[in-house]
Amino acid sequence: MLENMALPESNEEVIPAKLFRVQFARFISTALSPAVVVLPFVILVALYTKDPNALISVLLAFFFLSVGPMGYIFYGVKTGKFTDADVSVRTQRTGPFIVAIASSLIGSLILEYVAHGTHLIAIILQLIAFCGIIMMIVTCWWKISMHASAIAAAVTTLTMLYGKIVLPAFLLLVAVSWSRVVLHRHTKAQVIAGSLVGIVLTFTLLKLQGI
Question: Of 128, 97, 126, 118, which is closest to residue 52 (Cα–Cα)?
Answer without folding.
Answer: 118
